[in-house]
Design brief:
single chain, alpha/beta, 9 helices, globular
Length: 346
């Protein structure tokens, strides 16, 4: 397996990964560094003892997956984590360095829109973060509870055919949760609403319709897990993005005009209101086929409306006035609620 990294990786040997240290049978040296047995990339500290959750971000080309992930993680580290009484940080130096240099600095310091993930023929490394909360033990003491969160940012081109999905996205059948991003500016009903001169994405290419992308993801999940089951049990968060462009077309009483939630839990009432509103809008805007597929294939699914930037960067791809996200953490927090990592209340 080739990751495209240039540094020389250290030699490896087989050992019991559940132990903190192991002794090499060849040189008799002791080490606590654990690596993947396939690609030899170093694993996070205590990897075998911490529950991990793999989140796959999927969507068509140019839908904004990289920007969404960057803003989501930044919000978790700087605002949402403290709201939940949680600490969020990179699980290793590799993730910390990559996130700051390749994601955070360009967007937040240089106000430059991030480039889309491109297919490379290499196996992409996930960004792995540690999400830590405090849980009350039976004897009353609060002890740390760690969860490793791995984010895979797919290239939209990898989702344009079933052959490409099978070749490049083999991790999909190991995903604990799926986040599907849908660009509403590619829906015919939305394009009819917008004023002439509005900055629009390029037309969808072959196989890039949101429902076709989801159909291929569904096929990968069904084939990889339970081909005889009717339902896919992996929780699916469907996110309609770029809500800032559509705000003036929403009713005054729309839940998508409410202030962002700030409670220390996931609220089911607010989430159900948003779900119903987005579901209705999809049918109104010509995306009803997507909802039909979700309802007939996924046991656990929820709709969301988000804006990662809070403004249209325009053809210059510059973020004017700073990043001002709206509800960007909602889909992720819903997944954490499904995983039992954060509290859920009405």
């Amino acid at each position: 397996m080739h990751l495209g990294r240039r540094e020389v990786l250290p030699p490896v040997f087989d050992a019991d990964g559940r132990r903190g240290h192991a002794v090499c049978a060849g040189c008799r040296g002791s080490t606590g560094r654990q690596v993947c047995p396939v690609c030899h990339v170093q694993l996070p500290v205590r990897f075998a003892r911490i529950r991990g959750r793999l989140i796959a971000l999927v969507g068509a080309r140019e839908v904004g997956k990289t920007v969404f992930m960057t803003v989501l993680v930044h919000e978790l580290m700087n605002r949402v984590g403290s709201r939940l009484g949680a600490s969020v940080g990179g699980s290793d130096d590799r993730t910390r360095q990559r996130f700051v240099a390749d994601h955070e600095a360009p967007l937040y310091e240089r106000a430059t829109l991030l480039q889309a993930t491109r297919p490379t023929g290499l196996v992409r490394e996930p960004l792995v973060f540690r999400f830590t909360t405090r849980r009350r033990a039976p004897w009353g003491e609060r002890s740390p509870r760690h969860t490793l969160l791995s984010f895979f940012d797919t290239a939209g081109e990898d989702l344009t055919s079933q052959e490409s999905v099978a070749a490049h996205l083999r991790y999909l059948d190991r995903a604990d949760g799926i986040v599907l991003l849908v660009d509403p500016l590619r829906l015919a009903g939305v394009r009819d609403l917008l004023a002439p001169g509005t900055n629009l994405p390029p037309p969808a290419g072959p196989g890039e319709d949101p429902v076709h992308v989801l159909e291929r993801v569904t096929e990968a999940l069904v084939l990889g897990r339970a081909p005889t089951r009717r339902w896919v049990d992996v929780p699916l968060a469907v996110c309609v993005t770029k809500l800032d462009v559509l705000r003036e077309h929403l009713d005054e009483g729309s839940p998508l005009r409410r202030p962002q939630p700030d409670a220390a839990h996931v609220g089911t009432a607010d989430g159900q209101d948003v779900h119903a509103q987005v579901q209705q809008l999809l049918h109104r805007w010509g995306g009803g086929g997507l909802d039909d597929h979700v309802r007939t294939h996924y046991r656990r699914a929820r709709y969301f409306g988000v804006s990662a930037l809070g403004t249209d960067p325009g053809p210059e791809r510059r973020v004017r006035g700073g990043v001002r996200p709206y509800r960007v953490a909602d889909p992720f927090l819903w997944l954490l609620g499904e995983f039992g990592v954060v509290p859920v209340r009405r």
